[in-house]
Each structure stands twice: as structure tokens, then as C-alpha cells.
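## Example record

The block below lists the input lines for one assembly entry, exactly as stored, with component labels intact.
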Amino acid sequence: EAQVTQNPRYLITVTGKKLTVTCSQNMNHEYMSWYRQDPGLGLRQIYYSMNVEVTDKGDVPEGYKVSRKEKRNFPLILESPSPNQTSLYFCASSLFLRLDEQFFGPGTRLTVL
Amino acid sequence: AQKVTQAQTEISVVEKEDVTLDCVYETRDTTYYLFWYKQPPSGELVFLIRRNSFDEQNEISGRYSWNFQKSTSSFNFTITASQVVDSAVYFCALSEYGGTASKLTFGTGTRLQVTL
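Predicted C-alpha cells for the full assembly:
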């Protein structure tokens, strides 16, 4: 089954404790992206990757890091989480330049205390 | 820059009423895609429809219909005979096609509450 998986689905952590949210897709997609969703703001892009070893900032990259060492994985790293990073995070993937067919993961609800 | 505006923050209707969710977009591109997603209380994003900028035909899928008008840069979504299960947050989104396309631009969402 074609899918995008995220782990963990729910996470409560404390300020400053490094964490990684994993994202994996099994569709051989070149393009992957991270979004965060906050009330009243919709979804905003954090980082995206056009292919292995190619990443770039989205609209709200501060406080996040990403890496793309393998085509299927695109982890989101919070080196020193803060309460303002409490949010619902979505990973997405698509074929290169085919954002009209973008697949979303199930979301990761992160709470930073 | 791309922009999507969903001016309706929350809408409440009684079951069986028809409801229209508005979406207005801005883009400089002549080729683009428009989307609607549903986010039920469980949180996942459910894809509803994709429409490219060259296809202005309205679309109907069961109780759902979409009205795309390039002249007013709008892509409105109507639910006919609403049901409690339609209660969700609905997002309109826009993407460029090709070139340096890098993201979907989402509106802020409209929360629809359908009550008995």
C-alpha cells in the first residue's frame, strides 16, 4: 500500500530535549516536505527536499533541521524544542514537480512543555 | 507570491442544510492547481478534489460540488444536505505547477459544525 508514515504520532516532551520525528514513504518520491499546522494559521511549510541531499527552507524553518540521506526518509529534527513548537506536524511526498499529487502522512501531534 | 484566503473561520449549520465554503486565491502563474482537503476531528488530512487552472468546469461528487471561477479567483465548495459526519475543518490550497514549485499554500481553514 502506497503511504507516508510518521513516527511518533503523539509526543509530549520538555523544553530543550532534542527530538526527531521520522517520515518515510514507499512510493519512490523525489519530493518530500514538512508542514506544521497551528490554529488560525492553516498549514505552513517548514522545509522541503527535492531529492536526496537537496533540502531547502520553507516559510517557517527556524528551530528545525532536516536531512535527506535516503530517498524514502525525511526526518524532522528539533535540536532544542520550545513551547512555540507545540503543533501538529505533517509530512508529505510527491513525484518531482507533481505537487498536484501530494500524499500526506497521518500527522504528529507534538506538545513541548 | 501565492496566497489563499478562507474568510469564513467557522460555520454552523443544521443537518440537511446546504453550506458553501469560500476560497479566494492569488497567484501570478497561469498554470496552477487548486485543492480542497478535509480534516476530521481525528486529525488526518483527507484529499477531496484537485483542479487545474485550465479546467473551469464545475464538478459534482455526490453531495459535494465545486465552483471554480478564474474571473474572480475563487474555488468554492458546496455541501448539499449536510450531515453530522461533514463536521470538520476544510482547507483550500494552491500549488504552482512545475518550475520552482516547492509547496502547497494553504488557507487558514474553515471549521464546519453540523448539528442535528
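The first strand of chain A starts at residue 4 and ends at 7. Chain A has a mean pLDDT of 94.
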